[in-house]
Amino acid sequence: MNRLLRGAVVQATVHTSGILALRLLAQAGTLLLVARLLGPSDYGTFAGLSALAVVVGAFGTFGMHLVLLKEVSCSPQKRNSIISYALATTVANGMVLLLAYLALGQFLLHGFGIGIIPVVSLAIAETLLQPLLQLASAEHQARGNIPLSQALLGLPLALRFAAIACIWLWHPWPVLPSYSAAYLLATTIALVVAIRSLPESWPRPRSWRLPSRANLSHASGFAFLNLTALGPSELDKTIAIRLLPLGAAGVYAAGTRVTGAMVLPVIALMLSALPRLFRGAASGKDTGLLRWIFGASLTYGSVAAAGVWFCAPGISWMFGNGYEALTVVMKWLALALPAMALRVAAGSALMARGGAWNRAGFELLGLIVLVVAAGPAVSANPRAGMPLALACSEWSMAIVGWLILALNPWPQDRQQAE
């Protein structure tokens, strides 16, 4: 039975990896074109702005997409009751976050000369539209349509790549406002496609309802962990533009985008395993899946780190003039890759086992380590400081996350021990 279960997860992982591979190609193409068109300095500013939007937008659903995933995975008949308050929460919360991002962006990026169009476009896309897209994707994932769920999340990336390719060919001026407007349009189109792809239509707004206190309490842990999960991999770019010259911040941001994309196979693995982990947690049965996930994640992360180390000069060459320092940055970032893979796996497993606050706790620890380590590390070594701070953050999360999993048995195992 365990072998059949792992085989099903492997098969789903392969299919999902195919979708994520296309997503990776779109991300890579967009990254290369945007970075080359903007140059290190402007790209560093844009990366900090977009990273801040993604982090703020991570709170957009208030965890409702994960509640939807968990509940519909176990009881599909609960879908209509959950989606009615999930939509109301997401829209109301998104409006508040939109205003918060505009104020926060103005404060953090004052004096960088970004302009209003990029800020507003990113704000609407990430705080209002992307959370709604997450709800649609989560419903498909809960129903077992994992490749489709990821294809929907990857659609905005593909459309953004098409947009930046057109900008590359036609060279409108200025580039950043043009791409930012296309960024918003791509997310809008993807949301429309996602809504139309659902087997059951979303209820009309007049049927929405506010969540009860119990609903909010259930979602609060998921909401916080959705925020902390993105923090170390996104906020570092905003920190970098405050600690480094803009050119160096742009080089660092490009490097972290490459290494972040390298963990997509582990994300595919956990997306495929998550419904089964939810059901395993509900039944209290440890199928051995976690031990297999740990081994696969560590092995893949180590191989990916070696690949990044040896391919760093070629990656730097692909980015073009101004990114020569990327070779050194990529080699330092390779130290964090095994930990990134383990952190992603531990976070998903903890969430499935009802340890949302445990996951949020170890990811908050990673954020604290990143913030505390970044300043001294950059002062000691401006080129390697941010990669080393990120590596310290990722390894602290990976170690603590898997220790929590190892020291806390599954419910059925705990009862037998007692």
UniProtKB/TrEMBL annotation:
It is a multi-pass membrane protein. The keyword Phosphoprotein does not apply. It is found in: Cell membrane. The keyword Acetylation does not apply. The chain crosses the membrane at residues 20-39, 45-69, 81-101, 107-129, 150-170, 176-195, 215-231, 251-271, 292-320, 332-352, 364-382, 388-407. This is Lipopolysaccharide biosynthesis protein. It comes from the Bacteria. Keywords: Cell membrane, Membrane, Transmembrane, Transmembrane helix. Pfam families: Polysacc_synt.
